[in-house]
């Protein structure tokens, strides 16, 4: 299945940016697979000259594959995609440099959803829809942050199931000190054995 509307929007934005065109040329014939875990869905991004094609099927082996849950893959489209990789919620298989270059290209060619919507329903209506969407996303983000903070506080303070940040830091400091003490003890023991022998 071809993803023509998204493909058209990406290619329009690639054509409008010299940096995106250069990245696309650098990736010529390379393929990035985006695999959504828990769903039978993969999207294949293929660079061809200064354009990109998107499809849900690809017969060859992609140069790089990103796999993760739908939510973790959506985080990759956010302002800090490296966070999803650092936390391990998104996995890279294959050529990491190709995956990084595709990430840079997609950042450069990211469609402005409000602009794309204005092509269908007009500028004023698209702006109003954009305001509603931004407001809803802001509320959802604040609600999720509040929920996470409440759960964290409950687990730390009420349930005592999870240590507080201070307790965890003290424990890690204690482990580091104990490791250093053991290393010093081993060095002294080795020195005594050499003197004795």
Helix and strand topology:
Layout: H1 4-15, H2 18-26, E1 31-36, E2 41-48, E3 51-55, E4 64-68, H3 70-76, H4 81-86, E5 90-94, H5 96-108, H6 113-121, H7 123-158, H8 165-196
Parallel strand pairs: 1-4
Antiparallel strand pairs: 1-2, 2-3, 4-5
Helix pairs in contact: 2-5, 6-7
Structural key phrases:
single chain, 197 residues, alpha+beta, five-stranded mixed β-sheet, 8 helices
Q: Briefly note the structural class of the backbone.
A: alpha+beta
Q: What is the helical fraction, as a range of percent?
A: 55-70%
Average pLDDT level: 79
The count of DSSP E runs of length 2 or more, i.e. the number of strands, is 5
**What is the succession of H and E elements?**
HHEEEEHHEHHHH
Largest sheet: 5 strands, mixed
Low-confidence stretches: none
**Shape call:** flat
Per DSSP, the total helix count is 8
Task: Explain the overall architecture.
With 197 residues, the protein is an alpha+beta fold. 63% of the residues lie in helices and 15% in strands. It contains eight helices and five strands. The protein has helices at residues 4-15, 18-26, 70-76, 81-86, 96-108, 113-121, 123-158, 165-196; strands spanning 31-36, 41-48, 51-55, 64-68, 90-94. Strand 1 and strand 2 (41-48) form a beta hairpin. Helix 6 (113-121) runs antiparallel to helix 7. The chain is flat and about 85 Å long.
Short recap of the structure:
This protein has 197 residues and is of the alpha+beta class.
